[in-house]
Amino acid sequence: MPDTILIVDDSPSMLMSISIALRPTGLDIKEASSAEAALALLAGGLSPRMILTDLNMDGMSGIDLVKEVRKLPGMSFTPIVLLTTESQDDLRQMAKAAGATGWLVKPFDAAKLVALVQKLVP
C-alpha cells in the first residue's frame, strides 16, 4: 500500500492541481477542504507521511493546523509544508515556530513540488 500524503486547501481548484502534480509520485493522495476536515481525518485514523496545507483558509489557518497536528500522538515528526501566496518573513517564522517543516510559494512549480515531496517522503 502506498504512503499517504494529505493536502489541505479551501480552494477546490488548488486541491485538484496539487493532486494532479503529485500523481507521478505514486503516493496515496487524501484531500481536505479545511483544517477542521483535516483534523477530523487524522482523528479518524489517517496517518499521512506528509501534510501539505494552505496558509490562509476560512476558519482555522494553516499555522493553527500545524500547531494542532503537532499535538497529536505520532505526528511530531511528520513533515508539514505550507503552500501559500504569502512570502512575508514574519509569517514564515510563525510557521516554523508552530512546527512547520517547510514553505512553498504559490503558484508552485509542479516539478519543484514533486522534488520536495520525494525528498521529505523517501
Protein architecture, described:
The chain is an alpha/beta fold. It has helices at residues 12-22, 35-43, 62-71, 89-98, 110-120, and strands at 4-8, 28-32, 50-54, 80-84, 102-105. The protein has a five-stranded parallel β-sheet with strand order 2-1-3-4-5, with helices on both faces. Helix 4 (89-98) links the parallel strand 4 and strand 5 (102-105). Helix 2 packs parallel to helix 3. The longest helix has 11 residues, at 12-22. The two termini are 15 Å apart. The mean pLDDT is 93.
Radius of gyration equals 13 Å
* Biggest sheet record: 5 strands, parallel
Q: What is the percentage of strand-forming residues? A: 15-25%
Q: Helical region count?
A: 5
**Between the first and last Cα atoms, what is the distance in angstroms?**
15 Å
Mean pLDDT: 93
Question: Structural class of the helices, strands and pairings?
Answer: alpha/beta
Query: Could you give the count of β-strands?
Result: 5
Low-confidence stretches: none
Global morphology: globular
Query: Residue share in helices?
Result: 40-55%
Strand-and-helix sequence, N→C?
A: EHEHEHEHEH
Strands of the biggest beta sheet: in what spatial order?
2-1-3-4-5
